[in-house]
Task: structure prediction
Amino acid sequence: SLLRRRTEEAGSAHGEDSPLNRPTTALRVLVTGAGSGIGLGIAGYLAGRGCAVCLTDLDAAAAARGATDLRARGFVATSLGLDVTSQQGIDAAIAALEPDGPDLLVNNAGLQHVAPLEEFPRERWEMLIAVMLTGSAMLTRAALPGMRRRRFGRIVNVGSIHSLVASPFKSAYVAAKHGLIGFAKTVALETADTDITINTICPSYVLTPLVEAQIAAQARAHGIPEQRVVDEVMLRPMPKHAFVTIEELGGVVEFLASDVARNITGQWIAVDGGWTSQ
Ligand code: NAD
Result:
């Protein structure tokens, strides 16, 4: 697996302190919002590739169910309740991953609120920024000292095509997701002296329970079959005309976490079926 860093293959050119000269170990991964959807899927994908995953979620029971399911499949998984807006919770989660926190942090927790700005409740606006932008930043802040001690770390933010383009009525979501890219560029510069990278993946629609609920709601609202919502609303802006799958996202995270991606930092990767190429 790309995620297994091999001492034998490293060669001496990298010097004694090179991260390539560490003993072979699978990555220890912390995923936020892993009780459901994309976070759960990425955690499962990485567990299947030999990583030890810690599933965290505001919904502690959902994270625990996910971890139990992965263990039943023979994988290494634990879980923790974690509200990414709680500094105490963040500190406890990093401390729980002894020693030195995660090798790979996946900032995935997120939520949506759809309303024109004039009708957007201030508390909801602040909540979306608190979870998706400040939460990702504070968790990264807490994970960095351990990554620096090990001279290795990977941070992957789950952004969105809304990190790159906008849709009406999603001002807080679009602002938070755009913010992740600027945040990652800055931290990329601050960590350039060591083998730590931070990047943002930008998916268009992924068929998670969240999106399935949106399809059903739109079909009811417009009085049309669900398949028409999928074809005419969801997949229309995607030239490839297919939902992005969890496996595709897992594969991109795996690549970004690997040694060959050590010079990819502060970047974003759109996984959007061509949406933003138009
Ligand atoms: P989801 O609702 O299935 O999962 C989100 C998870 O985040 C939930 O388990 C929820 O409990 C958790 N969460 C919410 N607030 C939290 C908090 N304060 N602390 C910790 N956890 C919290 O949604 P999803 O579709 O899997 O979305 C996951 C991420 O992917 C989000 O950041 C979302 O913006 C992004 N995304 C989703 C899609 C898509 O099509 N589904 C597309 C692009 C980006």
